[in-house]
Amino acid sequence: MPTHLMWALVFLVGVLSASPVFAADFSGQFDGIGAAVGMKLTLEEVDGRVVGRFSSGRGDPFSLNGRRTGEAAQGSVVRTGQQFFFHLELRPLGVQFLLIPRTPDGGPDISGGTDYSFVQHGLQVPQPSAYRAAPPRGIQVDVVDFIDAFREWQPADMARIYGSLDSRYKELLQLFDHAAAEVLWRVCATNPPNGAFPSAELERLLERQNTSCAPYLSAVASVRDAGLMSEFLRKANFQLELIRETVKCDRGQSPETKCADVGAMSGPLMLRWRRASDIMSLLVGDVSPVEGVGPEPATQVPAASVALNEQPRVQVEPVSDLSSVPRPRSRPGTRSVSSEEAVLPQLPVPRERPGARLGH
Length: 360
Hints:
Structural class: alpha+beta
Low-confidence stretches: 3-23, 287-322, 330-360
Radius of gyration: 24 Å
Strand content: 15-25%
């Protein structure tokens, strides 16, 4: 039997059959990512039947009608003057949608299908009005340039470039909890592992945070729904500015007095490091942090002051060798700052740099 006829037979058998019991439901609203940015899917599953609407972002939406078979759903997508087939598969953060044109005789043209990725509504990264072109593969990006521009790149480009940063700068970013939480959010929004962010990089990022992408993105969505994303980004901005200045100080590009101030503010923040899921849970007042991994009990946080020219001893997963990571400096003769004095809202918040845009 010719290959295209075999695929057509498999597809049509799937459309005409259904399984009565399924582990998860296709129902929901989904937003396109990657090549599908601007597209939307609205699905409802009832007794194995899957119906809904597919908006391509151009022209009227399509009506979607099909049936579920195992962990997939298949059927037809129709609007005036156009007819397609579709094949849907569940993914941890959404669905994979294959749009299949019809052959001249009305069958599915599997080889001509186009694959699109969708995530549950509310989990995607907010989009600026227009993404900036990111440096292509093979171009080494400096961490300062990354901090200045990462919110304006496509999420997949941002994840790719973060993964290619010098390891000591990735470690520095991870020492600041809100900055690390934003990096994790934007990486997870690309539905990794993928070509931009491979499994090894993802495992390193998630292991330290003791979470996985699906529950973390749900926690981020709760913060957004509560209208608290600007508060999170305000704190992330402050930490990113400290990281930026720490790197400049390490390179001898800032005056000693400014570097001492940066060190005085950075040390307490690193001492009070929290996992990304806990940051989101605390923002919405959830006393049961995501995945049951809460901030370390107060008895585990050193009660004594921390010398600001030393690496804070934070009760989190061990990281790789930090001997080469740039560290904030302390001003000679200044006193140590206790954890009680290190509450972030008491610290001055730097103004936005001209032309900078928040990603919300």
